[in-house]
Amino acid sequence: MSIEVSQVNKHFGSFQALKNIDLKIQSGELVALLGPSGCGKTTLLRIIAGLETPDTGSILFHGEDVSSREVRERNVGFVFQHYALFRHMSVFDNVAFGLRMKPKSQRPSEKVIADKVHELLNLVQLDWLADRYPEQLSGGQRQRIALARALAVEPKVLLLDEPFGALDAKVRKELRRWLARLHEEVHLTSVFVTHDQEEAMEVADRIVVMNKGVVEQIGSPGEVYENPASDFVYHFLGDSNHLKQGDEHILFRPHEVALARQAENDFRPAEVRDIRPLGAVTRITLKLDSQDEFIEAEVIKDHASLKGLSRGQILYFKPKANTPA
Amino acid sequence: MSRRTSPVIPGFGLTLGYTLLYLSLLVLIPLGAMFLKTTALSWSEFIAVITDTRVLAALQLSFGTALAAALINGVVGTLLAWVLVRYTFPGRKIMEAMIDLPFALPTAVAGIALTALYAPSGLIGQWATDLGFKIAYTPLGISLALTFVTLPFVVRTLQPVLADIPREVEEAAACLGANPWQSFRYVLLPALLPAWLTGFALAFARGVGEYGSVIFIAGNMPMKTEILPLLIMVKLDQYDYTGATAIGVLMLVVSFILLLLINLLQRRIATP
Amino acid sequence: MSSSLSSSAPFSLSKSQGRPLGQRLLILSAWLAFGLLLLLPLYVVLSEALKLGFGTFFSAMLEPDALAAMQLTLIAVGISVPLNLVFGVAAAWCVSKYEFRGKSLLITLIDLPFSVSPVIAGLIYVLMFGAQGWFGPWLLDRDLQIIFAVPGIVLATLFVTVPFVARELIPLMQEQGTQEEEAARLLGASGWQMFWHVTLPNIKWGLIYGVVLCTARAMGEFGAVSVVSGHIRGLTNTLPLHVEILYNEYNHVAAFSVASLLLVMALFILLLKQWSESRINRQRHNSAEE
To answer: Name one GO molecular function term (chain B) (predicted).
Structure first.
């Protein structure tokens, strides 16, 4: 089911959280709302879910205006940042909740509910935890239970608020690959909120970059990375260097740099201030005479220019691809 | 991002309406009626009622004994809270549970028990008589009764705050060369003071209005050991409703002003 | 390492006995204050009650006036606790789940009965419903009596116990936030389903705690009830008032016997309180781990 957000504005008191948001999400897409905290991404997600009402504008599901529809009639699955599992219910009861809340006429029998719950728990690979309580689960397990609970009512769209925000780095990586695979399987229109550009790039089909209540750019991970529409997008999607060249400013990423030990054409000299091996790559911090801001360069660890390099030496560098600021 | 009120949670109108209606009927309208009743008196008549020497003596006694009790509890309560939070020792659990006894025990029971204890023939009273002074039927007895009924306030307001102060703070003070007393005085006390004042104010307010535990031990001698709430009762028994009301209003206003002052003091401490 | 150091230190004797001197002094003085201020009065109640043996003890409690007083106390508790329970839930709901203007004023108003002297609580109802009160003549015409009758006692009890449940629930519900409720709504629960299946189980222990405190106060209220009761034996005497009458008649053993019944009830309430409190703490602890 497609989602269309049209001309949405939202204020909290005098603070404008969202300004004229327009957004179209295709059926079956997995979209990330990416931006720094306070940019309005969570508010937008809550408005799509019906947990907040926009001041103006409308939300369309499959071309149909649902703005006036109550939250329980929108049929969205929502996964909260801190999961909001019902702490007094077992995992099974949590997942069964949505089915048991249906009006008598539509409510499936307990047998059907049980089958459905186990099917979902198998889908998230946690069937063996059915009798546990949320407090007995790890963060990653809670996350997956919250997802199973949201899927139980067979939603037409799935919304996730910082789905990996509260997890530690390793579990995070595992889970986001798992989520991307799960999306392949169930192919549900999904939107998730994140402040982590790496996460957005790795999981999403398309990324909506937001800042201060407005949409800065919408595009595939490749597009927003390679062709950022603004300085903000450029900075937000990765580390960047700022180089003054005459009257011009040049922006380039640390890996977009060529290094050499000897002076070459177009290469500029700089003093090596720090050398940091980071695993597959090594980061070198360079100081130019012409500016106070350091330049950071990242090259593969066995790059020829690194051999025998030490602090205080002079290195020559040249930005490879550059984006005029 | 801060959590905001969500429009999907129903019942705002219903619960707010019910809350306001209930409070109005049970609390606000009757209290308002009392203030209205005092308008039956002219200003000079009102002043005459509340500046009657018997009323002034009762006022002084009520506020004085409540203050004394709150101060005693300020010390004893701090000691108990400290010991309960910081140390484990035999009987700690019992002490912890029994601290609230004065809240659970009907005040009349506390009243007769304390009277029996402190009367000249009582366990402690006897011993005081031997030393040549009286406890029951004196302001000292009243203060002790108020100390009993308001004991939990300071302990219970200090406990959570004390438990929340990390041990590291004291350890840091010690590393910087402070002795235990200095670290208590300069590090812990300032952190505890707002909560201490809250407990103090609660104990004080309760002490001023307390009736059941006091009337047995007070002796109720006009001008000497007659507390304000008792004076209201006396006026009511004499069908002097306006007099009783005037004293009631006086009590509320004085308590309110004192609580306001304590509140202001607390704010000044909390925001250096 | 520190333990090996201290065992070789010159003051190893005091160390080996467990704790420093200052700490032991503090604990000792805490026990002294606790025993003197709290335990001794308890002992007095029981010893005075049993002065003449168990026979008089039980006959004082089973005497008709005492039973009537107990019945009236139960009526006052039975009406005021449920009403304040419903009020407490409603008040805590609107205060903790929504933002609105005047919220802190409302919280102050909910707490107001705590800072009003119980005698004044009684007085205001006398001024409203007494023979000379605002509604006095109207009630007299219809032959209705509130003051010096059961309704007055219930009203006075209600007043002094208004804040108990709300006070316990407000911080608990504020801490829990609204996410579980939102999740329930998103999963299709109606307002009532959300309340019964999600909110109520979450606040259960806080609710019990508030009810226990409310019951204790309702059972033991003296000043407010004393003003509106009229002290008619067998009719408008609650248990605490009955204790007062017996005491003033110099029937000390009977007074302390009834008092010890109230004391046992108070100890039972402390037990319930402790239990519900530990459940709340456990729940808090668990949710803090999330």
So the answer is: ABC-type sulfate transporter activity
